[in-house]
């Protein structure tokens, strides 16, 4: 082989390497360098505005924590998270309009949770958008919409749920119900939409299996967000002879229900999904001591040093007593997103979704992992009982009310986990 040929070959190799490097440089420069936009679609006005604001504070705090540590590390450089609010006004059509606006604004991560009916509408719309417009695919991260169908027969590759679904929460509550030998009569009441219906349906099923000697003396659904006076319902509860009420109500529908029951003289127990926040403890008052039970993924009075430090940090960020409702699952959601984007090495929607199927995060001693089969987050649940601030196990109260929830049962993630009927269709 003559020397000139060798020189020519080396020159060609050098030119190819230079072209490759230039192409890589152009690709890196072409990659988006702005923040990763998160679109929060929630009721920021109307009867459930307080729930939307509570969510916003939680997600904002989680986003701030990620950004404070330098953002999300990607090959092209760190990316910050940017949280943007879209008001659904508590209406499905408004939520769908907000989704379209968020996509047009460049958001590819959508967050929502307060209302399973809205979540179902968003899942359908996102499925259609992602099939029709692959260049603008969207992920839906759900922190509170707990209708079981969303990770069962209506499961979607683009949807991830970070809250325990209704059947899982009912199972945790029934772990307490089954131990109450004195309980003979139960009244079931809920909001008349998919989630409220699911709570009542599963409660009846589990009561029949675990406590067949317990009589269901009321099984009632009411319009969501439209009842201003729950005294007629309270009168029926008392007339039924019920010793306990099981409800999945949330927001003002819960606060007004328990307030009416208290004023009517109901002395029984409330088994709730959300009785530990958003005005409910203050509305119930002393009548709730030892009588209001709530299930959650975490409570401020979980007695570990890590848990206490976590709660104190949130209170330092939002010092107003009315703002103190912190959701651990929302913090784990944002941590899972950050972890998944870094593992994917990009913000490509499909790559992030595949990485999120393997999400496994821990914060303040609380661990959660995503189940790939149906995109249902798995974590331990706790059941708390209302008591006065300062009582054993109640170091922290709720919203400055003077009442808090002591943990009476911890349900391991393995115990809370339930089978799924999801048949996931993946791209």
UniProtKB/TrEMBL annotation:
Key words of the record: Amino-acid transport, Signal, Transport
Gene3D superfamilies cross-referenced by the UniProt entry: 3.40.50.2300
Signal peptide: 1-30
GO biological process, alphabetically ordered: amino acid transport
UniProt domain Leucine-binding protein: residue ranges: 35-387
Top-rank lineage group of the source organism: Bacteria
CDD domains membership: PBP1_SBP-like
Pfam families: Peripla_BP_6
InterPro entries: BCAA_transport, Leu-bd, Leu_Ile_Val-bd, Peripla_BP_I, TAT_signal
Entry similarity comment: Belongs to the leucine-binding protein family.
Protein name: Branched-chain amino acid ABC transporter substrate-binding protein
Species the sequence originates in: Variovorax guangxiensis
Classification lineage: Bacteria, Pseudomonadati, Pseudomonadota, Betaproteobacteria, Burkholderiales
